[in-house]
């Protein structure tokens, strides 16, 4: 499908007036050639591989920004899950590999590096345990490295031992960075049904089914959708609203398709996927919460919010798939509290609770994202929150995730301030009636009946 000059002109108007951007160009790299029994040798190989493969990524992205006038907010690298790369490593601590990833990312000028990760949905290897144990220290001594652990899937069920372990890891990551508003936990996400081509952090990693080098693009544009809905009459019916969202998503995705094609050609790597996710920022107007309110919800979190989000997510996907044959990743609408000015306001007003956010995750792209909770929250409570979210993903055959940030030394009503795209997070109350028995039963929650698809 040709991309016309009229489309480009329309897109530039979206950029200038409505905060349209390409949220990320992410270069996925296969690191399986970096295997060694010596962790420092692995670290050296990882650094060399990343710096050589990604040396043109940032200059190419900057050139595309200048030529097409569309901001590319983040340039990122995702790599093979490090637990797999370190399968032969004899050392117990894998932090040197994370430090090499951080140095390489800074050398080539990217904003984040993802893939300090493990996939343990059915069981954990020795290397997986080493990686999970290394996460708190690794995230504390690096700036741009992000970590993810997949603990469940529709086909495998949920590894409840891994869920409990990760509840402790989240707390330890927060404590290790308590002097920096617990940012370690903000760079860590726990998944169910993680996808292999996600360009967004903190969950990006380069899956085993991917080519050696792939460029994946994540588009954005909640401000564009909100502006379109603001121009609709108040008596427009929901079919009209959905059609307006769908048409807007098509235009946004075409801009991403153009950038993905050009980046792939200029970097000389395979074009991967286009992720359609509406990713908000703390900037005024660039908010998914404000889209829901433009649809007609009184304040995000109030009755009707989940229904409005379901319609938004569906319309975005319908519009996007018509604009590109390479839609993948997560695709839909993100609801990170700290990164969305409308979500922050709703949380501070008491309109948006953790329980309502959980309900919203049943119909959105991912899950409970960038949520600050009291620093004295118990591991069993965190376990329960992760388990609940994983169950939603497992039963509904969708990706769900949890990125909780225990605010060490802080209580409900206090804030964590991360700056930049990560914004700030009001500390939200949690239900403390988790008990202790469920978290410590262990074992694997069996896969649901709808996993039997063959």
From TrEMBL:
Gene3D superfamilies named in the record: 3.20.70.20
Entry's transmembrane regions: none
Domain of life where this protein originates: Bacteria
Quaternary organization: Homodimer.
Similarity section: Belongs to the UPF0210 family.
HAMAP family: UPF0210
Name this polypeptide is given: UPF0210 protein E5982_05960
Organism: Parvibacter caecicola
């Amino acid at each position: 499908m040709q991309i016309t000059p009229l489309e480009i002109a329309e897109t530039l108007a979206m950029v200038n007036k409505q905060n349209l951007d390409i949220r990320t160009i992410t270069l996925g790299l296969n690191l399986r050639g970096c295997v060694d029994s010596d962790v420092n040798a692995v670290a050296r190989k990882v650094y060399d591989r990343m710096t050589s493969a990604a040396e043109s990524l940032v200059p190419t992205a900057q050139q595309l920004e200048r030529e097409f006038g569309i901001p590319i907010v983040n340039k990122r690298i995702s790599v093979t899950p490090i637990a797999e790369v370190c399968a032969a490593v004899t050392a117990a601590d894998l932090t040197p590999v994370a430090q090499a990833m951080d140095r390489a990312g800074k050398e080539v000028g990217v904003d984040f590096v993802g893939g300090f990760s493990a996939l343990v949905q059915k069981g954990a290897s020795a290397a997986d345990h080493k990686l999970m144990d290394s996460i708190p220290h690794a995230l504390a001594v690096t700036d741009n490295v992000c970590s993810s652990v997949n603990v469940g899937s529709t086909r495998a069920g949920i590894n409840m031992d891994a869920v409990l372990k990760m509840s402790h890891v989240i707390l330890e990551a927060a404590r290790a960075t308590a002097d920096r508003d617990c940012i370690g936990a903000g760079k860590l996400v726990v998944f169910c049904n993680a996808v292999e081509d996600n360009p967004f952090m903190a969950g990006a990693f380069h899956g085993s089914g991917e080519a050696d080098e792939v460029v994946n693009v994540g588009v954005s544009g909640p401000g564009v959708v909100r502006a379109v809905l603001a121009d609709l009459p108040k008596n427009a019916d929901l079919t009209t609203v959905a059609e307006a969202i769908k048409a807007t998503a098509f235009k946004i995705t075409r801009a991403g398709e153009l950038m993905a094609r050009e980046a792939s050609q200029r970097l000389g790597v395979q074009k991967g996927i286009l992720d359609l996710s509406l990713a908000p920022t703390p900037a005024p107007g660039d908010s998914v919460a404000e889209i829901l309110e433009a649809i007609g919800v009184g304040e995000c979190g109030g009755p009707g919010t989940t229904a409005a989000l379901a319609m938004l997510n569906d319309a975005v996907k319908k519009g996007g798939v018509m604009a590109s044959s390479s839609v993948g990743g997560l695709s839909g609408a993100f609801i990170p509290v700290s990164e969305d000015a409308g979500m922050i306001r709703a949380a501070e007003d008491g309109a948006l609770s953790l329980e309502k956010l959980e309900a919203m995750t049943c119909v959105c792209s991912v899950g409970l994202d960038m949520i600050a909770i009291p620093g004295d929250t118990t591991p069993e409570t965190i376990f329960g929150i992760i388990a609940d979210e994983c169950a939603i993903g497992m039963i509904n055959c969708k990706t769900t995730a949890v990125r909780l940030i225990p605010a060490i030394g802080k209580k409900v009503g206090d804030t964590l301030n991360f700056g930049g795209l990560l914004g700030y997070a009001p500390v939200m109350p949690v239900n403390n009636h988790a008990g202790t028995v469920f978290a410590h039963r262990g074992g694997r929650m069996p896969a649901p009946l709808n996993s039997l698809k063959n």
